[in-house]
Every structure is written in structure tokens, then in C-alpha cells.
Amino acid sequence: IGLDWLARRAGAVARSAGGRTALSAAVPACAALWLLAEVARVHPYEGSYVSEIGRAALGPDIGSQIDFEFWGSSYREGLEWLDAHADANPVICVPVAPVLLRWYPVRPDFSFACDQRTTYVMFFLRYSELKPEFLANLPAPAFTIRRYGSELLRVYKVR
Length: 159
Hints:
Blueprint (H helix, E strand, L loop, with lengths): L1 H14 L6 H21 L9 H7 L15 H12 L5 E3 L17 E2 L7 E5 L7 H5 L6 E5 L2 E8 L2
Parallel strand pairs: 1-2, 1-3
Antiparallel strand pairs: 3-5, 4-5
């Protein structure tokens, strides 16, 4: 939305008779460059983006205050990591929105269940669906996706 507004504004400035000052062209150009840099920093997780103002207001641990990873796009990178690092025939527990895995290719030997056979646990950080005692009993994550200092996804090897 911001880039679209800036493009329209820059076009209006270029078309106006008296608007061709260096300042009127530089301000939208600088803002567009800043927005492009922000998009590049979070790509491909633009759906989990929180602006600088929002990050300042919410503090460093945004994910524990709001659910900002809800599309599950981080599952693609988590599955890619598991594809490269998981043992043969793993049983993967996905306690948060497992239905989203249908969108991504999985290795033929992967199976998904949350039971005593589980070897890996993978989830995106939606604290509203994760019980604190569940998180407390897990080992250190084997893989984590972070943007702007907040975690989007964790993968644990539990056996």
C-alpha cells in the first residue's frame, strides 16, 4: 500500500507544473527505497511484517504479544530444512495449523503425527495455540526462522 501511494505521489509530482523541485522528488524516492529495503529484509515473510513503529511499540518479543505469523508460509522453509537434515523416515509433529502443510511438497518418507513416535516437532509461533508447559519441555531448537529479532518458526529434534 505504501509503495503504491508513493508511486502515485511521484507520478503526480512529475506531472505538476511547479512540482519538479529536488525536494519534492527526493522525499518519495527516499521513502520508496526505505520501503523496498524493509520488504527485502522480511522476504518471503511479508505477511508477518510489523512496521518500525509497531516494533517499537510492541518491544523485542512481538510474537508473544500478537499472532503475526498466521499464513504458515514459514512451513515451506521448515520443510526444506527437514528435507535436508531429517533422518530417514521421520515422524513430524505439527501442533499448529498442520492443514497448511498440504501446500508444500514433502519427502516421501515423511509421516506426520503427534505421538510417542515423534522425532521432530515443527510449528510457527502462534503463542495463543501453544501451551507454556509444551514449550518448556522441548530441547533447544534445531532450526529457527527469525525476522526483526522475532521468531516465526521452530523445528525441534526430540528423538
